[in-house]
Amino acid sequence: MKQGRSLRAYAIGYLVFLYAPILLLPVFAFNDSKIIAFPLSGFTTNWFSEMWSDAQVWIALKNSLTIAASASILATTFGIFAARASQRYRFPGKGAAMGLIMLPLVLPEMIVAMSLLVVLLAVGVPLSIFTVILGHVLICTPFAVAILTSAFQSLDRSLEEAAYDLGETPVSTFRLIILPLVMPGIISSLLICFTISLDEFIIAYFLAGADTVLSAYIYSQFRFPARVPAMLALGTILVLVSICLLTVAEYFRRRGIAKTGGKDTGGFL
Hints:
By secondary structure, the protein is mainly alpha-helical. It is 75% helix and 0% strand.
């Protein structure tokens, strides 16, 4: 009993340490002072108005949405192929191949970003939104593979075999039977990859070149104390959007498991 209470206290303390800084974002975003400190001066929404009227924010947001949408679609597409191959087929080197695909999960993003920067400059590819998309696809694909592998694992192989017996080809079976069953996992993968790409900073900072990306723009504005409250207001909105996207992604993940009759062993939320 004592050990259980200690573990519970540790978990609570860890969560407070992890999320308390995020909870302070809206506190100072609505604070009527440019100084980020207690005591609070009063309530205001001026920082949200200032953020809303910043033209550079909208340019950076447009670029980030383009990157996030492209990276999530490409990463999910690659994730479908990799997850399907790993669950359906046996081939030499499968373990090594899947290990290489999942490697960006454990590599420091700083190392990945610097490596990509050196390679892209060496082959003469100019830094732009396109290079950021390449980097984000690299780091998002392992997440897509992890989600979609779970979705493909829960499929009943007898459904595929029954489709073959009824005269369907492998392509039509995949399109008419497999894809609809794993569609909740695909939607979950798209949303999570979109969220990861939208919030990612290090690779965007190294590979964006002259293009403005939202995460890098926010970082640059913290050099000016007068701009900090408006960036906190923007950060508050981004946190809420990320929470909503992850909640929807988790809903579709659990829906997909329930649809295929699998057992839920935990998730992202």
